[in-house]
Amino acid sequence: MARACRSRVGLWLVTLGFLVGAAVPARAQGVPASMLVASRDTAVIKSQLKLAVTLGSDVLARLRAAPTDDSAPIDPVLLRRARDTYALIRAGRHGFELEREWNEGKKGILPDPIKDLAFRRVDNAWNLSRTTVDLSSSLGIPRAEYLQRSADDMSRAIQQLNQALAILP
Questions:
Q1: In terms of residue numbers, what domain contains 3?
Q2: Residues 104 and 72 in one domain
Q3: pLDDT tens across 90-129, in order?
Q4: How many CB atoms lie within 10 A of CB 52?
Q5: Residue 159 and residue 129: Cα distance in Å, rounded?
Q6: Secondary structure of residue 65 in the 3-state scheme
Q7: Rounded CA gap, 20 and 42, in Å?
Q8: Rounded to two decimals, what is the model's pTM?
Q9: What is the DSSP letter of 5?
Q10: Are residues 96 and 130 in the same domain?
């Protein structure tokens, strides 16, 4: 009898452990690490920026839907996606810098003014995308102000990224 009870408890614990272990990766999903690696390949930069626009749009929607009172903490999914958006923009920005350095090492290659313009847009978006992450840890800023500033800056960052994507070859 005691052996059967222990066996059932053991089976129950194993099943519970499996269910909890299987649920953790679903919550921990984020941007694949390969998307955060800078590359001077324009196609890679564009895919990073496109994913940043997608995630940034989700962040923007969550910011606009968030309650303005302090009754609940800021949604951790919102903050993770805001960090991922920032990291993707940073990787794309760094890719532009890598390409520029690579081209400077070659003789006879002139800077591409279109890519310079796109870089400036991405650089602006990179700075704007920091607001949501940086202000989330600031004490003393009212929630409504945090949400408004974050939404405004994320909206402008997405506009800058879309402009950069429109002019990239």
A1: 1-30
A2: yes
A3: 999 999 999 988 888 777 777 789 999 999 999 999 999 9
A4: 30
A5: 11
A6: helix
A7: 41
A8: 0.79
A9: H
A10: yes
